[in-house]
Design goal:
By secondary structure, the protein is mostly helical. The protein has one domain. The protein is 81% helix and 0% strand. The protein has six helices and no strands. The protein is globular, with a radius of gyration of 18 Å. The mean pLDDT is 93.
């Protein structure tokens, strides 16, 4: 997916590092705004790592991915979209409190039919993924292009939302039964 790696410390590497720090930082900050105690964090690994270790892992991730511009653009795109997704209801999560929001959300889930929930989830992630897939298709022969990288990030974001939402749903249903 990428050509040659950038030299550590080069101006191009530092630009990719700044891009990644912006994206990962936005994801990290939006998570903190939404769930400061990580009660609502969908990623079990992030929840287990906590804030301090999670920050170190994110920094290491940024240091490593900055060598490859296409990968850096894809990761930053996915991270910024995850941040936007987090911010969408962060105000409600904060105003209600993490536990109250989780209780309210689980009640809404219990009152909903699973097929309609899954249809809406697939509609959201599928429509988003199609935008990324279109970029991948039209720029497939230009793998080092920014459009191709952004398409990868959009597709990755769609899979992230789908995966962690289904994981959360599966865990909830397993704990009920």
């Amino acid at each position: 997916m990428n050509g040659d790696a950038l030299a550590f410390g080069s101006s191009a590497y530092l630009r990719m590092m700044a891009l990644l720090l912006l994206g990962r930082g936005a994801d990290f900050f939006s998570t903190w705004v939404a769930t400061p105690n990580l009660v609502l964090e969908g990623n079990p690994l992030a929840r287990k790592l906590g804030w301090k270790l999670g920050a170190l892992v994110n920094l290491a991730l940024c240091l490593g991915l900055a060598f490859w511009p296409t990968t850096a653009w894809a990761a930053a795109t996915a991270s910024l979209l995850v941040a936007a997704h987090n911010f969408h209801l962060a105000w409600l999560m904060r105003s209600m409190g993490e536990d109250a929001f989780r209780h309210w959300f689980l009640e809404r889930m219990a009152e909903s039919r699973l097929p309609i929930f899954l249809t809406c989830l697939l509609g959201e992630t599928g429509a988003t993924g199609l935008v990324g897939a279109a970029l991948l298709y039209y720029y497939r022969y230009q793998e080092d292009s920014m459009a191709f990288a952004i398409g990868c990030g959009i597709v990755a974001y769609a899979f992230i939302v789908l995966f962690y939402t289904l994981l959360s749903l599966w865990r909830r249903r397993r704990n009920q039964g």
